[in-house]
């Protein structure tokens, strides 16, 4: 029976201790990667919700030319899933709803006709989870989406 420094039980315990130390050193990095992946998924979901809301406002704008009604339609589409309306999710009727003559960038005022276009822009303030852990990242990002549709 070997009872010295190279005993089989001691060697196994040494390897087990090294594994615990490696896990302790890598755990914060692994947690950051997991939370970053969750944040990326959240950002994608909110971007899709923002796109849907702005698209709904633009579709509504092809039939109604009232900027306030178009904004309200975009807000209604979110159904509260983009945070606080007017704070986290913003569509300003005076600057974010624009009408153009045809497919140009010439602004249209007055009577609108078939072939003109409406553009609706929405802004969403996204707050990532990773910025709470890593202080070098900004506390929030502004995501912006514009949709332009032709008036029937």
Short description:
The chain contains three helices and four strands; from the N terminus they run ααβββαβ.
Can you walk me through this structure?
This protein has one domain. α1 packs antiparallel against α2. Helices cover 46% and strands 17% of the residues. It is rod-shaped, with a radius of gyration of 27 Å. Strands 1, 2, 3 and 4 form a 4-stranded antiparallel beta sheet that branches. With 152 residues, it is of the alpha+beta class.
Proportion of residues in extended strands: 15-25%
Which structural class should the secondary elements be placed in? alpha+beta
The helix/strand series, from N terminus to C terminus, equals HHEEEHE
What oligomeric state is this? single chain
Helix percent reads: 40-55%
Distance between the termini: 93 Å
Characterize the largest beta sheet: strand count, sense, and whether it forms a barrel. 4 strands, antiparallel
What is the 3D form? rod-shaped
Low-confidence stretches: none
Mean pLDDT: 86
The gyration radius over C-alpha positions equals: 27 Å
**How many helices?**
3
How many β-strand stretches?
A: 4
Number of domains: 1
């Amino acid at each position: 029976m070997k009872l010295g420094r190279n005993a089989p039980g001691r060697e196994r315990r040494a390897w087990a201790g090294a594994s615990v130390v490696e896990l302790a050193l890598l755990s914060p990095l692994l947690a950051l990667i997991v939370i970053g992946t969750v944040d990326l998924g959240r950002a994608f979901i909110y971007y899709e919700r923002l796109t849907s809301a702005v698209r709904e406002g633009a579709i509504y704008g092809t039939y109604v030319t009232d900027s306030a009604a178009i904004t309200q339609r975009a807000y209604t589409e979110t159904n509260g899933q983009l945070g606080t309306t007017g704070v986290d999710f913003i569509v300003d009727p005076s600057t974010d709803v624009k009408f153009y003559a045809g497919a140009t960038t010439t602004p249209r005022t007055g009577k609108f006709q078939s072939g003109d276009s409406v553009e609706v822009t929405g802004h969403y303030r996204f707050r990532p989870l990773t910025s709470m852990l890593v202080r070098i990242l900004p506390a929030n990002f502004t995501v912006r989406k514009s949709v332009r549709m032709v008036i029937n």
